[in-house]
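Re: weekly structure request thread

Next one in the queue (317 aa):
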Amino acid sequence: MEWRQLQKEQEVIHTQIRNYERFCEQKSLIEGQIEHARQDIAYNTAVLNKIRQKLDKLEGFSFMNLIRTWTGQQDELRAEKIDKAAVLELKINEAKKINQDLLKDLEQVTQKLTPINHSQLKEELTRLKAKKKEYLQLHNPAKAHKLEHLVDEEILTKQLMKEINEADEAGEVALSALGKAAASLHSAGSYSTWDTFFGGGLLATHLKHDSLDKSESYLHNAQIALQRFQNELLDVQNMSTESLHVETDGFVKFADYFFDDIFSAWSVHSKISTAREQVSRVQDDVHNTLRRLHEKQNKAKEYLVELKQEQTVLLEF
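Done, posted below.
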């Protein structure tokens, strides 16, 4: 059996093994994210219930409440608690949506894992490596170790390029979702200004709330798209060769902050502009991350050419 054929078979098996490992990593990651979403739902629901109880007490008569009414404190307390309650409701609703989306992602990953026989693949790889070793010892023992190293680097580089492509696709989806969220927030802000400062009446109020509802939906789409982009970046970050490593930790940490903070920022109309600014910052960060991925992809292509050239020289015996 010729060397190129042996190498091709090894690449196929390596790819299948890497897919299995990647799906296992994704499954574990998604399961953790589902658990986190459920903890958020439970915690925020408990806090919201406490606020509701306090609001009920504010509505009841007491001498302290009477004093607060005289001093204007009751209205301030009620407004503060209602604002907190609105934030919590948004976070709970969003966590529930995220949980449902992640459950679908988990089901898809599990379906991809099911047909893969990992132990059989490992056995096939062991047998194939034995054949390659025998071939090299017979034809080119002096260069065997170097050639095997080059082959391993080539396989890793191709896998890295594949995962960079998948991360790039997820990033483009996230950018599209962020663009729609930004446009929707701009619309919500315009209706809010019309309603607040120009006395838009019932029509303006209806349009504003309808726009806010759409913004919430677009923000959710952006959040789950960013979550998937983040997961793809973690896959890329876990891959490295001798000469190539992709560092994406900065974006991952930033995304975590965005996920937690964005709904608090736009829960009331006075903060819609803040949410728009945050979305704009995330758009810039995704653009910068994609640019770095493209740079790594180009370097990987150059590295792959070098590896193949070195193998060609060694195989000329």
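The radius of gyration is 28 Å. DSSP finds eight helices and no strands in the chain.
Next request, please.
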